[in-house]
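STRUCTURE:
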């Protein structure tokens, strides 16, 4: 799920997001007209089945929160040494 230019993406409490893609939730500022920081919120469960280089929540110049009810589960295989629960770049704010 991707949010840009001031959007909010959210996994609600009691909901699951299972993904085999690189990233589960993405929040970015975007560029050009309407560029504004976005928000990614995990109140539920994000489960990555990706075997290598998975990221549960990624932000770029934006904000991410993994709330008290939120859980992140990355694939447990021995090959998943490069998995990241939350990754923020360029003035991002990450909160657990």
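SEQUENCE:
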């Amino acid at each position: 799920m991707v949010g840009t230019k001031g959007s909010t993406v959210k996994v609600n409490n009691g909901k699951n997001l299972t993904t085999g893609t690189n990233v589960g939730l993405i929040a970015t500022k975007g560029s050009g007209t309407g560029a504004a920081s976005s928000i990614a919120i995990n109140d539920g469960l994000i489960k990555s089945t990706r075997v290598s280089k998975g990221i549960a929540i990624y932000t770029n110049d934006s904000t991410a929160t993994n709330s008290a009810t939120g859980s992140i589960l990355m694939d447990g295989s021995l090959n998943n040494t490069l998995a990241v629960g939350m990754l923020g770049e360029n003035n991002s704010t990450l909160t657990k």
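REMARK: The longest strand covers residues 23-28.
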